[in-house]
Specification:
single chain, mainly beta, four-stranded antiparallel beta sheet, 1 helix
Length: about 325
């Protein structure tokens, strides 16, 4: 199935195609990144993820960390685990996860098999539970602005809520015969959150109870500052002038370049990170500079002639441009 969301939180809608598989198979994900003005991009803006290395069977893009950026949630039924790869503004999926065939996450120098959070399903602890697929996008059940993480271990539907911190304990456990991938509603009774589930005409309710002792479960701190939210994550804008995107004014001089190239940006506070890759994604060069410096020099005489991408990360803004090197 497919969805239309802003997958990289750049203010443009993207087309997400899910290729989820049943237990015993593996799935994947394809994203066609949108362009400014809503047009369809060419094939260089299509990214494909393959979950075979982690035995992933079902995935969703859902904001489970509350920063307005879609996070990648992969249900690995064959391994009895749900893995969450936390997104950040401007980061595309292959930067976050890798391709599946490439073990290196070059943007963060980590492996795609090392996600932000790793939730074991009950069958991994006791085989008296059924093994099944996992990862459903049922939305925000308790209305706190953060989507829950949903999985199954038949005949149970389980929900995990991140809020300010995520832990390995299910906040919601509901027993039913089958589940539909629909939004879940919520209500409050005497000040306590109560969850309502629609399941083949029957309604089940669950109220959050107390927690066990600290240290008896795994806790995951949010990967971003408390209260941070991507500026593009708001809903429909008011009628009038569309909001201007923040820009670093990234420029390359000369372009094409021979033995060296100046990488320029508008000076501002922070650390400016410059990263260069080939068009096929191979890492070439990385350097850091004071943001107020406004310029860096890339010694292009050390690389072969060809086309490269230059990415500038400064604060919460990321810009990428292409350049041609000729010798």
């Amino acid at each position: 199935y497919w969805d239309r969301i802003d997958a990289d939180c750049d203010g443009e809608q993207d087309l997400v195609i899910y290729t989820n598989m049943a237990l015993g198979g593996t799935g994947g994900l394809q994203v066609i990144y949108g362009t400014e003005g809503g047009g369809f991009p060419d094939t260089t803006a299509i990214e494909v993820l393959d979950y075979k290395p982690i035995l992933g069977a079902r995935s969703v893009l859902s904001d489970v960390t509350g920063d307005g950026v879609p996070d990648l949630v992969v249900g690995c039924g064959g391994r009895d685990v749900i893995e969450i790869f936390a997104g950040k503004p401007g980061q595309r999926l292959q930067e976050l996860y890798g391709t599946g065939h490439d073990s290196a996450d070059r943007a963060n120098k980590r492996l795609p098999v090392r996600p932000w959070a790793h939730l074991w399903l009950p069958h991994a602890i006791s085989d008296s539970w059924f093994r099944s697929t996992a990862a459903f996008n049922l939305g925000d059940a308790d209305g706190d602005g953060v989507d829950e993480i949903w999985g199954t271990s038949y005949p149970y539907l389980m929900g995990y809520s991140a809020r300010d911190i995520l832990d390995s304990l299910a906040d919601i456990v509901y027993r039913g015969d089958s589940y539909r991938d629909v939004q879940i509603s919520s209500l409050r009774v005497s000040g306590f959150p109560v969850y309502g589930f629609c399941n083949q005409g029957r309604i089940g309710y669950y109220r959050i109870g107390g927690r066990p002792n600290e240290g008896s479960y795994t806790r995951y701190s949010l990967p971003h500052a408390a209260g941070f939210r991507c500026e593009h994550a708001t809903g429909v804008t008011e009628v009038g002038e569309p909001p201007k995107k923040p820009s670093l004014g990234l420029q390359l001089e000369p372009n094409p370049a021979g033995d060296h190239q100046q990488i320029k940006w508008e000076p501002q506070e922070g650390i400016a990170e410059v990263v260069v890759h080939t068009l096929s994604g191979e890492f070439c060069w990385r350097s850091e500079h004071p943001g107020l410096q406004g310029m860096a020099i890339w010694e292009t005489s050390r690389v072969s002639s060809g086309v490269y991408t230059v990415t500038l990360n400064l604060g919460r803004i990321t810009e990428t441009v292409t350049t041609t090197i000729t010798h």
